Each structure stands twice: as structure tokens, then as C-alpha cells.
Amino acid sequence: MTTTVSPEATPVPPEAAVGTATGTATSTSDSTAAALVEIRCPEGDWLPVCTPEDLTPGRGVAALLPDGSQAALFADRAGRPYAIDNRDPFTGAQVLSRGLTGSVDGRPFVASPLLKQRFDLESGDCLDDPSVSVPVYGVRVRSNH
């Protein structure tokens, strides 16, 4: 069973490699995990990154994508995952996964740990400067069954 939380869900090809996650999540060594959080890469393939249990609400995880770019992966208190580009467009640093999360007017966001600009986790729009945004990645939770 696949639960899609972002548009354009497609099956993961068997040859897909597991992403490299860094940050506050811990990897699980149990190969029988019930579900995987997957990010849709810029090339269109789905990349398994971690289990839902590896994501702690309010904390981010950085994932290295096959093209060398990075995604910042988050989960809200309800467990819904989000993924945006990890690069802070104001400084160029790969730090958004280390930002503080919150919500304003029902919009989930992450605030950059450097200059504190807030980025909407659903759209990638900067809430503090409408002329700036970051790429958003599709995310889904896929059952291993």
C-alpha cells in the first residue's frame, strides 16, 4: 500500500538506491520496517530515504540525492512528511534541514537557522520575501508489504 502525500506518485523502480540521510534521524537496521519515506528526485524517480519513525516532528533530516543536490525532510506533529531543497537561497549554505519548524495561518514552515527567513513546506515560498522560493520535492510514505 502506498500513501501519497504529494502529487505525481509512481512506483519505485527496483533498481532505486537508498538515499543518504543525515541530521537528527537515526537509521534503522531492521530490514522488515513497515514503511519507507520516499522523495521524488528531480529526475522523476522515487528515492527511499528513511522510515517514518526516523523523522522527529520539529526536526529536519538532510538527504543526499543521486544528482548531488540535497533535500531537507521534515514531518509535522501528525506525521505528514514534507521535503524542500536544503539550500538556503539567501546564504547558499545547505542548512534548511537544521532550521526550526512552525506554522503561521495554518501554513507549515521552516525558518533558516542562519538569517531566520521562513519557507513554506508545501509551496517552498519564502514567507518573508515573496520574490524568493526553494524547490519542493514530492514525498510519500510507502509500505514494504
- What is the terminal-to-terminal distance? 7 Å
The strands making up the biggest β-sheet line up spatially as: 2-5-6-7-11
- Sheet with the most strands? 5 strands, antiparallel
> Strand-residue fraction?
35-45%
Please provide the ordered H/E string of secondary-structure elements: EEEEEEEEEEEE
Question: What would the average pLDDT be, to the nearest integer?
Answer: 82
Structural class: mainly beta
DSSP summary: helix tally: 0
Low-pLDDT regions? 1-32
What general form does the structure show? globular
Q: Descriptors for this entry?
A:
145 residues, five-stranded antiparallel sheet, mainly beta, globular, disordered N terminus
Can you characterise this structure?
- This protein is mainly β and 145 residues long.
- Helix content is 0%, strand content 37%.
- The chain has strands at residues 2-4, 20-23, 35-40, 46-50, 61-64, 70-75, 81-85, 100-104, 107-111, 118-120, 136-137, 139-143.
- The protein starts with a strand and ends with a strand.
Describe the structure in brief.
By secondary structure, this protein is mainly β. A five-stranded antiparallel beta sheet has the order 2-5-6-7-11, with no helix packed on it.
